[in-house]
User: What shape does this take?
Amino acid sequence: MSHHPAYPVGLRLTGRRVLVLGGGTVAQRRLPALLAAGADIRLIAPAVTPSVQAMADAGELSWARRPYRPGDLDGAWYVLIATDDPEVNAAASAEAEERRVWCVRSDDAEAATAWTPATGRSDGVTVAVLTGRDPRRSAAVRDAVVEGLRDGTLTAPRHRGRVPGVALVGGGPGDPDLITVRGRRLLAEADVVIADRLGPRDLLDELPPHVEVIDAAKIPYGRGMAQEAINEALIEHAKAGRSVVRLKGGDPYVFGRGKEEALALAEAGIAVTVVPGVTSAISVPAAAGIPVTHRGVAHEFTVVSGHVAPGDPRSLVDWPALAALRGTLVLLMAVERMGEIAATLVGHGRPGDTPVAVVQEGTTSAQRRVDATLATVARRIEEEGVRPPAVIVVGDVVAAR
Assistant: This one.
């Protein structure tokens, strides 16, 4: 075989017959991409793995439960040969050559007429890497390129189809590694970032110098409300043709006023993308070793905002009902009112010896955990000088060791 380089090409397989010979782990790895491409897959093998069986049972491909026979390549556009019988592989390969069907062979790349590249996808870009006979190197190059595209370290700005608008991005609980892949990429592509005080600050340090970073808390709001001023700033920058990221701590739709901003932007005719974030309600307890649910201990958890005190007419929380629950209670923004909240829960029947954990600045290098009970939590917060942001967990999961 000559050592000319392979000629790379993308195949449009939608509705076209693809033949797969063999139903083992090689076929199992290759099938999802073929299915994603819309191929009409015929698989021939006497036996298959449970995962391949599930694809056949779901009607994603047709499986003939028998060995290969000459003539099986009839009507195929592309064939993947992956049986563990060298004679069968050679015979099928010869039939492919005769019928001029491109053929991938898992056992002998030299005898193949096509090779499967190491592929990855990021935001509509397919990366395919061929390095001759070194599949591990192919995978390493693919991973480096895909990771670079995802996290913005490999800058490939869009030149077509880039729509000015606003992305409401959940930055996660504080550790910059806990933002989603999409969130990090949109940050890297932004012209303007309007960030909350509680958003992950380290993410802002990574932004290139041309990006305008605006602290949401410092937007002047005159006679209106701060939230209205933020909405207006988002609209103004998007209308000027900029790509805007509204970076919030945690998740934009968990006590983050994300929906208010989305509605204001939609009314102004501005495209909005919502990128969910890892919410501190679940991730901060986890970082401190506390599961919000645990078999045999808690089968439910309730997340409550503590920023309006019990008894305040503006409160929408049904505290008596919360006190009657047996599961885990997670309180956000509750440090300053924890005395009133604990007293209310105990007053409505939750035992005073219920375990409580207060986790300050969870997932960051400054994380610390203070343990207490409902009866002692207010005093412990004061003694330990706990300050927001902190997540408070009430329930038996706190003591689950």
Notes: The chain has twelve helices and 17 strands.
